Amino acid sequence: MIAEVLACLLDQNRWQPWEYQFLCMLGAYLFIENENKKQFCWQAILVGLYFFSGLNKCDHHFIYNVWNNLLLKNLAGIAQPGTWLLRAGYCIPMIEMFAAIALCFGRSRNLAAWLLVLMHIFNLLVFGPLGLRTNEVIWPWNLLMPILVISLFYKKNAGHFTLPLMKPIYTIIILIAWWALPWLQLAGYWDKYLSGVLYSGRVEYLYICTDDLNAHYRLSGCFTKSQEKMECITALSVYQWGMQEMNSAPYPEKRVYRSIAADFNKLYPKAVNHFYLYRGGFSKKITEFPIRN
User: Fold this and answer.
1) Could you give the CA distance from residue 153 to residue 169 in angstroms, rounded to a whole number?
2) What are the CA-CA distances from residue 292 to residues 138, 209, 254, 270 (Å)?
3) Which residue from 73, 123, 231, 257 could staple onto 206, CB 3.0 to 4.6 Å apart?
4) CA-to-CA distance for 116 and 118, rounded, in angstroms?
5) Are 111 and 102 in contact (CB under 8 A)?
6) CA–CA separation, 160 vs 218, rounded Å?
7) Chain-centre distance of CA 13, in angstroms?
8) pLDDT tens, 210-253?
């Protein structure tokens, strides 16, 4: 665990949602001896993850980027969905939030567990080999999560979801990390990937306009048609670059993007480079991202 924590401190791109989740769960396993408190921490992590994952999807960016573009157009082939079909997309985050809350109560726990299992099966059908065949890094996660949900919450395996005494201190840390700090993300004071922002459509993406021919040749598969207001015909998608190099999305925070941009300038010092932050939606937002060399 120490080696993994040190590796994460050296590279913020390792701070993926599943990495954060399983490190917290491993910490509970190592630092808490009482089995009931250990189980409570694992349950608290999953409840917080599902609740804030749903909450962050209650946004028009999710409707446009994920529900409309990814699911309706790319997967279902519906090019012009009607207003009510677009609004139906809000059912997804509402069901996820309902399931998270329902996990806390004995009478609704079994129903909630099965709803979440079905959600993960749906995710695999959408992104897996039978669907879009993309983002392979999330496939094992969606296979493991139903097992965790059933083992921690379904029937007698769950016990009673009651707040234990605030000892050991790790219990307090889990409650703060998964139930308190994610609220700060809504105001921009906590990281998105540490707050259950999973396929919400709310993250910004970094694009690079460069005139360096070596960059165009070396990263040819990562260039895409640029958006309006960008000073180039094709722009380097840092998301595609990350998926090509790491098979994982770059950590979507401005400080990380600023570091990537600075390294790109060092890699191609003679090029004219312009950096842009892009967030899709019904009203696209594109801003130039100034970098200090």
Assistant:
1) 24
2) 34, 16, 13, 16
3) 257
4) 5
5) yes
6) 56
7) 12
8) 999 999 999 999 999 988 788 899 999 999 999 888 888 899 99
